[in-house]
Structures are given as C-alpha cells and as structure tokens.
Specification:
- There is one protein chain.
- The chain is α+β, with helices and mostly antiparallel strands.
- The chain folds into 2 domains: about 170 residues, DNA ligase/mRNA capping enzyme (D-amino Acid Aminotransferase, Chain A, domain 1, 2-Layer Sandwich), CATH 3.30.470; about 80 residues, Nucleic acid-binding proteins (OB fold (Dihydrolipoamide Acetyltransferase, E2P), Beta Barrel).
- It is about 20% helix and about 30% strand.
- It has 5 helices and 15 strands.
- The strands form 3 sheets. It has a 5-stranded mixed beta sheet with strand order 1-10-9-2-8. Strands 4-3-5-6-7 form a 5-stranded mixed beta sheet.
- Strand 9 and strand 10 form a beta hairpin.
- The radius of gyration is 21 Å and the shape is globular.
- The N terminus is likely disordered.
Length: about 280
Amino acid sequence: MKTKFTSLVCILFIAQLSIANPPPDLFLLKTYQNNQDITNWVMSEKLDGVRGFWDGKRLITRSGKTLNPPEWFIQNYPPFAIDGELWTQRNDFEQISSIVRRKIPDERWKKVTHQIFEVPNQSGGLFERLSILHNYLAQNPSQFIKIINQIPIHSKQQVNDYLDVITRVKGEGLVLRDPKIEYKTGRLSSALKAKKHYDDECRVVEILTGRGKYINKMGALKCQLKNGNIVKIGSGFNDNQRSNPPLINTQITFKYYGLTKNGKHKFPIFLRIVPN
C-alpha cells in the first residue's frame, strides 16, 4: 500500500511539473507559395537561432524550457512580453544552442543577441507593436536586444531577389508577414516562411549502420513523419554525429527539395536535432 501511495504521489508531482511549464502560446509560420499575393506585406531574414520568448520575467524556448541567461544579459529587459530569435551569426545553430541551454551561463552569452520580431499581446498592427519596444529601449537601452528590420514588399520579384541574396550568404530564408494583422498565435496564413528548400520534422525510429568510409558508424536514419510515413535520411551529418547519432525517438529537422509523384521527400538532408 505504501509503495502504491508513493508511486501515486510521484505521478501527481510529475504531472504538476508538466502543467506548470507548458510551451508558450506563440505564432508559427506557414510555407509561402509563389502564387500567394504578398503585396504590401513586409519581409525579413529568417534567422537560424533558438526561439526566445520573454514573458516579462523569464526567457523561455518554444518548447517551454526556461533558459538561464546571465543577469547582465537581461538587465534592461522590458516588463512586457517580447518574442524573437537568440542568435549569433548565420550557419551557427549548434554553438547558439550550446550557449543558451547551459544551466550555468558563461561569457559566451556576450556573442548572443535577441533579435526581436514581435511584441505579443499588444494592440495594433506589427509596426505599432514593435514601436512599443522601440520606445522602451530609447529609455532603457540594451546592447543585446535588436529589433529586426522589416522591409516593405512591392513585388514577388523583390522577394525572389532578396531570397537569392540571403541564400548566397548561407542564410536560412525569409519571413513574410502581413503587418496590418493584429497579434495572433498558432500557425498563421499571415506569417509565412520562404526558402529555397522545404523542411519538416520527424522522429528517429531506426539507426542504420554505415558502409565503406562509414563502417562502424551511423550510415543513415530511418524516421517517422507525423503522418506515419517513413523517410530515410543519409546525408547532412558530420563525423561526430555519425559516431554519436541521435537516439531513438529523438525529433530531428531535415530539409528536402519538394515531393515526388508518390509523395516521397526529394533529397532529404539532416539539419539539426529539435531542441527539447
């Protein structure tokens, strides 16, 4: 009886922890289709960092994990919510993730900036919401908070040209937004991502042994998509990742270049492990 009671207490305690730290309710991006009308929208570079949501007191990841930035990093943070990307430079995701996820922060946080694209829970369109942060920073400057520049869109060709520029410098892509829309959460038709490739997430279900130069290492991963289909991913890994592959049930992100007639992903390439 005592063992059952103890187990029940543990279950209830774990349940309370999960309820106490739910993921923040954020807006998410849909994928831009070239036939969509985005005239009079705005665009910005899509930064490949760690999503950082400041709720007025804490810095939280998209999955709900509370980060531990140094006190000097958040010294002049506002008492209201801001949302953006914790970022260092292009093509640097692994270092960013390593810096911001340490339980005990170190001096590397000095390399990080919080690139802000939204001021949640405020009224008005996007520029009105961002102006609230702009006015706050005028009185309470922070070297770590940067408001992402939003470029007005006049044509689809302008978007394609800018996407080419960002891709050439190894940027991830663009974010296209309708600046007139009031703040909303969920996956929005008014907030789109534009890339030269697509990306998706899947769960590792099998680790396949490599051959040739990858003998005794991981050769590929078999992963299950949300719809239950299986995709095999064999490229995009460095030597360390092949020696220490993601564990079974790990969520990963991969990129691909469209679908075949049978709905299979073309040329799937590993990008990163999805942060917890």
